[in-house]
Amino acid sequence: MAKLKHFDILNIKHYVIFITFMVLASCKNAPEHLTELTGKQIAIDSSFTTVDSIQKFIQPFHDRVESILDSTLAYAPFVISKTDGKFNTTAGNLMADIVLSETNPIFKKRTGHNIDMVLLNHGGI
User: Fold this and answer.
1) Which residue of 58, 75, 84, 98 shows the fewest CB atoms closer than 10 Å?
2) Is residue 50 in some structural domain?
């Protein structure tokens, strides 16, 4: 029987390529699809009564939230809108002022200089 030159090397190369391909192909996870969804609609109306233990637990948190939300946080003497101008809007000016006031101390601490201006694009507002 004749011995083929480099036959063993080709077998090893083919084997390595085949195994590598199989490993790469087998690492794929099949996507999971939602096949069924079950649920039940529960109507919430006056027929439900509150549970006293839950109400007592929630009451301090409820009072705190109500005290914060009942007060006026800020007042704007004019409408803040994104549509009151093409490039210069009240919402854009407000956002630029907020960015400047919040970032200037950090920038000054790091560099020793002040921020000269803030430029925001219309889509980022």
Assistant:
1) 75
2) no
